[in-house]
Amino acid sequence: MGEVVEKGRGFVRSYFYKEHAERTHSQFKSNATEAYHTTTVKHGVKGLSILLLLPLFDIVSGFIPDYMHCVLLGVCRQMVGLWMDTCNHTEPWYIGRKIRLFDKKLLSVKPPTEITRSPRSIVNRKFWKASEWRAFLLYYAFYVLPGILPPPYLEHFLLLSCSIHLLLQQSISISDIKKAETTLVSFVKKMELLYGRENVSFNVHQLTHLSTSVWNWGPLWSTSAFTFESNNANISYFKPLQARGHAGV
Questions:
Q1: Residue 60 dihedral angles phi and psi, to the nearest 5°
Q2: What does the alpha-carbon distance between residue 40 and residue 226 come to, in Å, rounded to a whole number?
């Protein structure tokens, strides 16, 4: 449910780490029923969902965190934003004064053909696609960040990178899932200590559920939105055909 905390001149909802057992389907249903009858929010649940009528559907584990949005376009982009945004110029993690060195190292990388996009300047990061954030998190960061990002923050970021490496394997062992879970929990805990409670976003919190998702549904790549996003071009292709009267296409 999170907690409202101050950030800058306003307020944000923080999802800092708390030890607790994951909610079950029956607990959710009980919370939803109580919220419905009392018209109040019960442990973050606002009321009943029609999805509770689906047979054999677990409303808790049935929704899967999408690592493309949660990790790449979420946490990874958030972290780089914290490092680069001038509003953080007094913070110990700020590296906005080292953009030239950052770009020099990043743009010198010559990726293999498996990575379809060449590195682009960090100055243009707001235009980066999810695949570019993936390449940075999994590969480039190990080369680019040492000597630029202070060691405590570098070590923290690499916890995320190593965890996602484990959960993206073609075949993942039980020990790998447990190792990733421990590492991600450590990342979330240290996020509050290093960057402040106000920067523990919902996407950061979702990291604690990735290992469970992999346990239930398979590697992160098998449930990500990358496959669906890649077909957006096909959707845009059919629209002009329909406009020309090819409604049956």
A1: -90, -55
A2: 37
What size, in residues, is the chain? 249
In sign, the C-alpha dihedral spanning 40, 45, 49, 53 is negative
Residue 68 φ then ψ, to 5°: -60, -45
pLDDT in tens, 163-193: 999 999 999 999 999 999 999 999 999 999 9
List pLDDT tens digits, range 72-95. 999 999 999 999 999 999 999 999
Predicted TM-score of the model (pTM): 0.87
Are the C-beta atoms of residues 135 and 111 closer than 8 Å to each other?
yes
Q: What three-state secondary structure class fits 45?
A: strand
- Tokens standing for residue 69: 């949005």
Residue 105 tokens, joined = 């190292």
